[in-house]
Amino acid sequence: MTSHPEKPDIDEELAAIGSNNGGEVQDAVFGAAEEGGPNYRSVTWVGASILMMKSEMGIGILSIPEAFGTLGLIPGILVLLAISGVTTWSSYVVGVFKLKHPQAYGFADTAAIIFGPVGREVASVAFCLLWIFVAASGLLGVSIGLNAVSTHGTCTAVLVAVSAIMGFGVSSVRTLSKMSWLAWVGMISIVAAVFSLTVAVGVQDRPAEAPQEGPYVSTWKLFGNPTFADAMAAIASIIFAFCGVPAYFSVVSEMADPRQYPYSLALCRGVATGVYVTIGIVVYYYCGDYVASPALGSAGVLMKKVCYGLALPGLIMSMTLYLHITAKYIFIRLLRGSKHLTANSFTHWATWLACTAITTIIAYCIASGIPAFGGLVSLVGALFGTLLCFQPEGIMWIYDNWHSHDRGSTRWTAMVCWSIFVIVLGTFLMVAGTYGSVVGLINTFAETDGSAAWSCADNSNSV
């Protein structure tokens, strides 16, 4: 690839961290490992795939049936498959860019390479906001699960705080490899919950929120008739289900062999897309307009307890992973190039725990202040999911291939057009989806007279 001389200072600054130090080869991100310190580069390709699945298949899957209810079955499936395809390509670009630029840990380093210092700061803010908001939706999901299992045993505001305390404790585990076994537990948990829901709605007489007297026929539709705002909010919810792409940079950076990343990606996206389509079709087909949000409450009081009981470990792991990834980025940004990044020093531990604590507190405030699950999910998907899952990857491909040896060929021209299309599509979905999500949140707060923030009301009864 032809170099880009207009920004050599940023490339040299980042690459210098991966240089030799007294004959010892250092990792381009983490530097040299200290004796007794954490080994960040130890995630297997299977472990990476599970971590990637868990970054997506947690909170997002619970909003897909409702999105199908807004769009209709056929448009819902087509939109889901289209978003899966585009974000899978985006995910692949992340892995390729990481191999070409080993000094890049995340989108902030990527923006620094392409756009310079200003780009790095803008990307840093966007990345942190995305995952803090996603972590907030995770906190909200855990509080809903605790409410459902305990039959609203205490004030919801207390349950959100309890969720935050759990998230801080588990997210303070320092390496992703040590969290990969928790990701296995979380994956099994969430899959068991959603498939239990699928079986339950298939065998029951009618969904929990449907009229319980007289004959019942499911109200599912092949094609919905939503307003523009409702349609864009539904599409944003589906984007949220696939917005794990920014986390993949962190995962591939901690893989023992980043060249195996495509295997991790293929397994992750194959499983995730298959499960999303299955759950979306079956739950919406049987529940129709009476699907709950989150979807686990669609099968009645008893099954809601069962499903949330099964899902709680998965919801907790999702919340934890989002908090960990955000805190890890800030931690590395603060200590990169210092011995304290990999040493068991006081500075290392104080900085790490401060990062996880501050991240958790901010996520807690968001979860308590915007307690509408569906609205929060669609807002995150629209405003931050598209911003980091569409536009950057198109720009990354163009940057790495603009001076390619096959420039001007049919394939090169097609890929440039595709990359530009992804950038334009992401921009449109970001603007339109954010509009739809904000309209939905305004309507939600109008219905509750604005009293839902820091509320004690049971949040597991949303439909």
UniProtKB/TrEMBL annotation:
Major location (coarse): membrane
Native source organism of the sequence: Cladosporium halotolerans
Keyword field: Membrane, Transmembrane, Transmembrane helix
Localization per Swiss-Prot or TrEMBL: Membrane
Top-rank lineage group of the source organism: Eukaryota
GO annotations of cellular component type: membrane
Domain Amino acid transporter transmembrane: 43-438
Family the entry assigns: Belongs to the amino acid/polyamine transporter 2 family.
Its membrane topology: Multi-pass membrane protein
A single MF term (Gene Ontology): L-amino acid transmembrane transporter activity
Keyword ATP-binding annotated: no
Transmembrane segments: 59-83, 126-145, 151-170, 182-203, 231-251, 263-286, 306-325, 346-364, 370-391, 412-435
This protein's name: Amino acid transporter transmembrane domain-containing protein
Alphabetized Pfam families for the sequence: Aa_trans
InterPro entries found in the cross-reference section: AA_transpt_TM (IPR013057)
